[in-house]
Amino acid sequence: MGRHSLPDGSAPRRTGSRPGARRRILVVSTGLALAVGAGSVLALRGDLLPFGDPCGDTSVRLDVAASPDIAPALAAVAETAREEATRTDGRCLDVRITARPSHEIADSFGQRPVDPEFQVWIPDSQLWVDRVDAESGTPLTAADAIASSPIALGAVPKTAKALGWPKKSYTWNELTRKATSGDALRLGVADPARSATGLLALARIHSADTTEAKDDDEAEVRTAATAKLLAQRVADGDGQILATLPGDDSGAEQGNPRRNQALLLSEQAAYAHNTRGDGGPGLKLFYPKDGTAQLTYPYTLVDDGALSPEQTRAANRFMTLLGEPGGQRTLRAHGFRPGNGAAVAKVVDSAGGRAVQPYSATPADQPTAKELRALLGMWTITVQSARISTVVDASASMGSPVPGRAGQSRMGLARNSLLQALATFTPEDEIGLWKFATLLDGGKDYVELSPTRRLGDRDEDGTTHRDTLAAAFGALAPVPHGATGLYDTTLAAYRSARATYASGKFNAVVVVTDGANDDAAGISLSTLVGELEKLSSRDRPVPLIAVAIGPEADESALDRIVAPTGGSAHRVSDPSQIHRVILKAIMAAGGTGRR
After folding, report:
1. Is the dihedral of CA 84, 88, 90, 94 positive or negative?
2. Distance CA 337, CA 485 (A)
3. Of the four listed, 36, 72, 394, 569, which is most buried by Cβ atoms within 10 Å?
């Protein structure tokens, strides 16, 4: 336990699986709270303490980082607490709210800052807390949600009427089909890499695709296709997406192709837009009838072991204020539902919700952290161009036949699978090819067969790089008597990828091998791992993805090799599955890499 304790009655609660991380839920005190510190017992309720109104220099400062949508409501509660000289430990409670996008705070906390400037963090979703936890970042102690808001589709009045609002309701797939059909809506969404609203909406779309599709592969193809279309009208964040709506009811604004007719957004965002009065036409909300996603706002202590007892009790006192009737009224006045998700009639009405829309239905289950990482990876490689160097083992063992495959060799099946993977990339993606064995080029174990370039680029004869690369893949063949020069090749390929890093793209190195390192004259495994640790960078990530074919591949060595880069190692018994493994690994890496 750290240097302090929460009040009696607190119970442990985990928000993640990191060993040793403190996960204690905060107590919401509605009556007399006791705080034990330095052998003394203090009554925390201000109305039990004989203090005057002036606080002077006797305040307890609490710094809170909050999602920009809820920050104004929190600031209002904090201001009321100052005006009423609300007490904690006999001193006035002085809460300072700083509005910061949740993804920015998650990025910062994922890097384990030595001295966080905030004691409390209130993001717009538990997914950000889970992400920091998965990255073994700053220790976080999450309590229950202080507010919530469902995600819906908001449409301007003309579009809403055309869609049958409010009497007609839709599933997620029906809504997205409307937005992607021949007479498509101009539907905007906040970037799922930066917005919980965008990512949770994408999760509900994928869930609907999974229900309708015959298998997981078909579901992923459907979701990826929808993601590509949504990406055409994506905005950086929740605030920016509202600015894409028409500014007024004029024909020029309504017909402007750069203006969106509908948005995927939270009920609270629609409430704020509709009640502001100067944001253009009010929105009408469609709540998907197959279950909406929901923003939650978990009250989260930041590195509670480093907090003083006074700061801990101040944090507990502020959460108590947010849960009391006055705090809840303030949150309702800013368009939020309570933490349990129960619909609030006035909020729904002002946000643009009406019956028959299922605005009071229980939200769908939240997706798991693993599911969200996979979706974020799908989004990354779907909407962001990739730069991938492919490094293929050409040692003699790659000519070995694969059991049960009618005499086909490892290389033959790998070659065909890599060509299938190549077909999934767009002309904007940059792909290259190396092969390796031992002593292929003088003293080097590797040869670059095709440079890493845009697939859509053309040579002087008009041939595209895709065609040239496909020919190079098709010509891959085992080198007679060639051994596996894995370590030297991996280091050279990784150095090259780091030296030619392309900002704004998903950069990676993919190594396909069927054996253990056989180059006795080359570098050792420990030397390779040490060099990769030096080369790897969180700001310019290049995950290394290794695919091990067959039983002779040294999977334990590959696990050590990929670890410093944030990549992953995978074993396949059938080389024809390489393309699926590579694409899934790229999605997984895209879901965890820095952007």
Report:
1. negative
2. 60
3. 394
- Give the list of residues 6+ apart from residue 506 with CB closer than 8 angstroms, or none: 380, 381, 384, 385, 386, 387, 388, 586, 589, 590, 593
pLDDT value of position 21 = 38
C-beta separation of 341 from 294 below 8 A: yes
DSSP state at residue 191 = -
Tokens 């893949």, located at residue: 473
> Dihedral of CA 302/308/311/317: which sign?
positive
Phi, psi of 155 (to 5 degrees): -125, 145
Is residue 99 within a helix (H) or strand (E), and if so which, with residue range? strand 91-99
Phi then psi for 244, rounded to 5 degrees? -90, -5
- Residue 499, CA atoms < 13 Å, CB-side half-sphere: 7
64/61 Cα distance (integer angstroms): 10
- Residue 536 to residues 84, 92, 371, 509, Cα–Cα distance (Å): 52, 47, 26, 12
Residues near 475 by Cβ (< 8 Å), separated by ≥ 6?
Answer: none
- The pair of structure tokens assigned to 398 is 């790659």
Q: How many CB atoms lie within 10 A of CB 535?
A: 17
Q: Which of 68, 54, 42, 16 is nearest to 316 (CA)?
A: 42
What residue has token string 């990876």? 377
DSSP helix, strand, coil percent of the chain (3-state; round to 5): 40, 20, 40
Determine the pLDDT at residue 296.
Answer: 97
What is d(CA 525, CA 487) in angstroms, rounded to the nearest whole number? 7
**Is residue 185 a contact partner of residue 232, using CB atoms and an 8 Å limit?**
no
C-alpha span between 472 and 446 (Å, rounded): 15
Q: Is 413 left (phi over 0), alpha (psi -120 to 50) or beta?
A: alpha
3-state SS of 123-180 is CCCHHHHHHHHHCCCCCEEEEEEEEEEEEEEEECHHHHHHCCCCCCCCCHHHHHHHHH
**How many C-beta atoms surround the C-beta of residue 500 within 10 A?**
15
pTM more than 0.85: no
